[in-house]
């Protein structure tokens, strides 16, 4: 394998990893704060992809610019879902919470999936922008603009999220609630508002990932669960206590998958990712990026 | 002295087990009031009920400067100026000392004066200044209690409630915590304290209540209770003086 094609493979791994990362950060955020696994996270990603698709087709808006519409739309959907559905689950404790949150979010998965099948047809959709084939050529390595833009956005969003969480009051309220919700309330934080905001942010992150998926791969009503699983693997890889650690873990999985696809064979790319997942579970069960 | 906190006929349960039975007590402005009693008497439940963490209550009312608290959520009670340092400290472990303190000043009221309060807390506990960028869970037990105390002060309490602040700490640290309570009280903060170290608590407190099996079993000034043989026998491990062989 030449150096160029190695570099090409590595970069494509990073491009895919950026999508993985941003999808996983959303799941990790919701898990870390609401302490429940939102199985419908992939469905939110799917919805984000569709919103981007329709904005592109109806308004003729570039998918990257469409984020200005896609993010608020999914933010609002997230707010609504928290009010109507998750608010009731989040109050439960212990085993009851775990069981109910899994059941409720799995149920929601089925509902959203079928609504999407009914509203958007089961066809796979994708966005072909005018500059789809174009890219930067760097020392024999091609960097398509769509992929490059996606990775750049994923990076910027992760950095912004970091500053939001550590430098602003609403962000600190989120971190405090994730650490200890009782102490957060005692400090004067309305934790139910924190839960609502966090869930809406998680949905927005899913929407960003969905927009990146529809410009590079494609979206159909049934893709949700695959993305939930991928994001879940990454969250566990990073360590469930590490919200932003999910981003580098996503990049890592993307690169490992791409390299194993190139060196071992495309059939095995996901297998190697899962082998790495198992190894991490055995050797470092607290996750790669936890500090505790 | 005006009545700051009023607990009137409060009853509360944990699941099917009733933990508080018709508890009434009051804390006046400027006082240090201690609550002593054996394990499982309901002291922590009473603290959590006042702070809004234990809901719903079976009956009774809690008022603070005239405002009814019994149906308010915890965050609204914190906004009123009642700050609880919970048992076991409950810090934000993964966040830094500074972040813990900043979150302590989350309410709008406290936020405005954050910089000054922070300086006051650092003056009170210089060790926290040194360790301000360290994560809370890397601190020693004593430092963690100081941080919990400091975090509560950041919320500008008018009533500071502390649940077992000396539990599990070395004697020298306990001394420091009691000194700080005294100092804080002298600066105008009313203190309501649950403490297993009954002797030390009664020495500090102006008044105290004894809670046994979820009921108020006695009350008096700290001095009076310190001299009371029944109290000494039950909570300070002393035999009554007349029974002692001389």
How is this structure best described in words?
The complex is a heterodimer of chains A (292) and B (246). Chain A is an all-alpha fold. Chain A has one domain: ABC transporter involved in vitamin B12 uptake, BtuC. Helix content of chain A is 75%, strand content 3%. Chain A has 11 helices and 2 strands, in the order ααααββααααααα. Chain A has a two-stranded antiparallel ribbon. In chain A, α5 packs across α6 (169-179). The longest helix of chain A is centred in the first third of the chain and has 32 residues, at 3-34. Chain A is globular. The N and C termini of chain A lie far apart (40 Å). The mean pLDDT of chain A is 92. Chain B is of the alpha/beta class and 246 residues long. Chain B has 2 domains: 1-81 and 157-238, 3-Layer(aba) Sandwich (Rossmann fold); 89-156, no CATH class. Helices cover 38% and strands 26% of the residues of chain B. In chain B, α3 runs parallel beside α7 (141-154) and α5 packs antiparallel against α7 (141-154). The chains are: A mainly alpha (292), B alpha/beta (246).
Number of helices of chain B: 11
Work out the count of structural domains of chain A.
1
CATH topology of chain A: ABC transporter involved in vitamin B12 uptake, BtuC
Query: Regarding quaternary structure, how should these chains be classified?
Result: heterodimer
- Structural domains of chain B: how many: 2
Number of strands of chain B: 10
How many E-type strands of chain A?
2
Per the principal axes of the C-alpha atoms, what is the gross shape of chain A? globular
Main sheet strand line-up of chain A:
1-2
Give the CATH class of chain A: Mainly Alpha
Instruction: Determine the strand fraction of chain A and express it as a percent band.
Output: under 5%
Q: Give the full name of the CATH homologous superfamily of the largest domain in chain B.
A: P-loop containing nucleotide triphosphate hydrolases
Helix and strand content put the structural class of chain A at: mainly alpha
Strand content of chain B: 25-35%
Task: Indicate the radius of gyration of chain B in whole angstroms.
Answer: 18 Å
